[in-house]
Amino acid sequence: MRLTTLKLTRFERGMMQMVLARRAAISCGRLSAIENGDSAAQPDELQRIADALKVPLKTFYPDDAA
């Protein structure tokens, strides 16, 4: 299993994927694709995910990206 920052953050919060998907108002399939790196999140999706996880949006960007 590949641990992306998003997936690791969700695991750290003990949140099931379907709970995060519901809170972020996206489908479980879409969240899975984003978590596994198969699809890039749209900016609004990423903001909703960050809000649902209660983390800053910058959590999902590498340190060198600004």
Structural class: mainly alpha
Large-scale geometry = globular
Q: Helical region count?
A: 4
Tally of strands: 0
- The parts where pLDDT drops under 50 for at least 5 residues are none
Q: What is the CATH domain class?
A: Mainly Alpha
What is the CA-based Rg, rounded? 11 Å
Overall structural domain count: 1
- The helicity comes to 40-55%
Terminal-residue CA separation: 28 Å
Strand percentage: under 5%
Average residue-wise pLDDT: 90
Query: Assembly state here?
Result: single chain
Give helix and strand order, one letter per element, not per position.
HHHH
What do these coordinates show?
By secondary structure, this protein is mostly helical. It has a single domain, classed as lambda repressor-like DNA-binding domains (434 Repressor (Amino-terminal Domain)). It has helices spanning 5-12, 17-24, 28-35, 43-53. It is globular, with a radius of gyration of 11 Å. The N and C termini lie far apart (28 Å). The mean pLDDT is 90.
